[in-house]
Amino acid sequence: MVPPGLLPARRDRVTIRIGATLAARKGAVSGSQKGRHMNEQHLAAFRSSVNRCVADQAFLQDFYDRFMASSDEVRAKFNNTDMPAQKRALADSLFLLAVAVQGQSTSPSWRQMERIAERHSRGAMDIRPELYDLWLDCLMQAVAGHDPQYSPEIDAAWRSVLGEGITFLRSRH
Predict the structure, then answer these.
(1) Fewer beta carbons within 10 Å, N or C terminal of the chain?
(2) b/e per residue, 117-141, with b = 16+ CB within 10 A?
(3) Total number of domains constituting the chain
(4) Contact 139, 162 (CB under 8 A)
(5) Closest CA to 63 of 46, 47, 83
(6) φ and ψ at 93, to 5 degrees?
(7) 90: containing domain
(8) Could you give the 3-state DSSP secondary structure of residue 106?
């Protein structure tokens, strides 16, 4: 879960805050940034698509239905999980990642990503790196089904942004 104050609670304000952050950073690329500089068009397309998807109440349920059906191992990982809380955490993490990919590796959003990586690591929930491929495939199927503006460009934007997060999580397994 994202700490209070890091991201606004209301999704309609998230677009404004993320957009303002991106505008403030436009053209500012530093060697200390996490990974490579995120393509601004991919980031804008990702943010817009995330807003459309999470506005659809069925989006997260569709994703989790697909994900849990993808593997017995995945289904077992969610035994005794508070699914409404899990859905909120996923939605929050999508917005968090949109902020993280445009910031410095020392930013609060990357520190929050460190906490997420720790929870998913071998020493905690032990989410094997290979499971992220299933996660991404199932999520992209849900995006395709719930974003009315889905296109190859939207798909590429999601994969670009999520790829940063997946690479980060895998590196800390």
Answers:
(1) N
(2) beebeeeeeebeeebbebbbebbbe
(3) 1
(4) yes
(5) 83
(6) -70, -30
(7) 35-171
(8) coil
Pair of tokens at residue 130: 């290979």
pLDDT digits (tens, 9 = 90+) for 4-49: 333 333 333 333 333 433 333 333 333 333 444 568 899 999 999 9
What is the rounded CA–CA span in Å between residue 145 and residue 91?
17
25, part of any domain? no
Question: Backbone dihedral region of 126: left (phi > 0), alpha (psi from -120 to 50 degrees) or beta?
Answer: left
For residue 124, the Cα-to-chain-centroid distance in whole angstroms is: 20
Element (H, E) at 40: helix 40-55
Tokens linked to 80:
């005794």
Residue 20 corresponds to which amino acid? A
CATH number at residue 162: 1.10.490.10
